[in-house]
Design a protein that fits this description.
about 70 residues, alpha+beta, 4-stranded mixed sheet, 1 helix, 4 strands, DUF7979, DUF7979 domain-containing protein
C-alpha cells in the first residue's frame, strides 16, 4: 500500500538580516514558477500554499527586499 505525502506549506516574509548560512538567491536566478510566486506574493495576489520546487525553507530571495522562505 502506498502512502501519499502532502507537500509542506511554506510562505515568504520580509527580513532585515540574513543568516550567514542562508542560501541567498537573486530573483533572476529563480525558475519561472518561483518568480511568478514571488511576484504574486509581493503584489498581495493569491499564492499557492505549496512553494515551487526550487525554493526551500530558509532560502533568502533578493527582490525589492530580502524575503525569507518560512
Amino acid at each position: 500500500m502506498s502512502q501519499s505525502v502532502a507537500p509542506l506549506e511554506r510562505s515568504l516574509s520580509r527580513v532585515d538580516r540574513v543568516h550567514p548560512s542562508a542560501r541567498v538567491r537573486h530573483f533572476d536566478q529563480l525558475s519561472e514558477s518561483a518568480q511568478e510566486y514571488v511576484i504574486a506574493w509581493a503584489s498581495d495576489d493569491a499564492v499557492p500554499n505549496v512553494l515551487p520546487e526550487d525554493l526551500r525553507a530558509d532560502d533568502v530571495v533578493v527582490f525589492t527586499d530580502y524575503l525569507q522562505v518560512a
